[in-house]
């Protein structure tokens, strides 16, 4: 269970985001929707314990120390894929980092219903498959919550819907995912909860 109450982040005299709340039990898919510069990415980093909020309360499974309980699948620019690596190389690197078994990537891909092209270069994947690769890498850690930024990025609406459907499958298998986008429509009927960000 991830629970955020009236989170706000103030930097350099102005609010990056404020008044954002969510409550997501295990198996939930939450969509964070907002335009560019609305604080979506910073909100995800705050949920993951990578940015300290100015106000509000955040817990994961009742604990206030959340960093070890939330996996960051992608939040640009700090956390993203390396274009020159192959899909399988990304998986092996993440496996070493998280100290998980050899089957962790396969299980994550199965949860998403995604057939990973392990020999392809990341830069050769389309944007939707890059997002699914990020999601799979995030799921490998087996942490209670995964955050994923920019589901919409360079992705046509029908492919966005496929990504959201894959995330829904993973949540139905037990994952809890908080994912951001600028487009609400592709996630309708799939997300359990919504957080709406506005430009400060």
Automatic annotation (TrEMBL):
<dbReference type="Pfam" id="PF00005">
    <property type="entry name" value="ABC_tran"/>
</dbReference>
<feature type="domain" description="ABC transporter">
    <location>
        <begin position="18"/>
        <end position="150"/>
    </location>
</feature>
<dbReference type="InterPro" id="IPR027417">
    <property type="entry name" value="P-loop_NTPase"/>
</dbReference>
<dbReference type="GO" id="GO:0005524">
    <property type="term" value="F:ATP binding"/>
</dbReference>
<dbReference type="GO" id="GO:0016887">
    <property type="term" value="F:ATP hydrolysis activity"/>
</dbReference>
<dbReference type="InterPro" id="IPR003439">
    <property type="entry name" value="ABC_transporter-like_ATP-bd"/>
</dbReference>
<protein>
    <submittedName>
        <fullName>ABC-type multidrug transport system ATPase subunit</fullName>
    </submittedName>
</protein>
């Amino acid at each position: 269970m991830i629970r955020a109450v009236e989170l706000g982040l103030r930097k350099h005299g102005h609010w990056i985001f404020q008044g954002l709340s969510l409550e997501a039990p295990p198996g939930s898919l939450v969509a964070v929707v907002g335009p560019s510069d609305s604080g979506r990415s910073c909100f995800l980093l705050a949920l993951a314990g990578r940015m300290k909020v100015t106000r509000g309360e955040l817990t994961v499974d009742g604990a206030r120390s959340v960093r070890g309980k939330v996996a960051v699948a992608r939040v640009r620019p700090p956390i993203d894929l390396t274009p020159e690596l192959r899909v399988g190389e990304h998986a092996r690197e993440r496996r070493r980092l998280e100290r998980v078994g050899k089957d962790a990537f396969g299980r994550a891909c199965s949860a998403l219903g995604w057939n990973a092209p392990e020999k392809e270069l990341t830069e050769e994947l389309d944007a939707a498959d890059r997002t699914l690769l990020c999601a799979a890498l995030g799921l490998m850690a087996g942490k209670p919550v995964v955050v994923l930024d920019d589901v919409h990025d360079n992705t046509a609406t029908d492919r966005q819907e496929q990504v959201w459907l894959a995330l829904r499958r993973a949540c139905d298998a037990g994952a809890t995912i908080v994912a951001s986008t600028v487009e609400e429509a592709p996630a309708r009927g799939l997300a359990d909860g919504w957080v709406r960000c506005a430009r400060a």
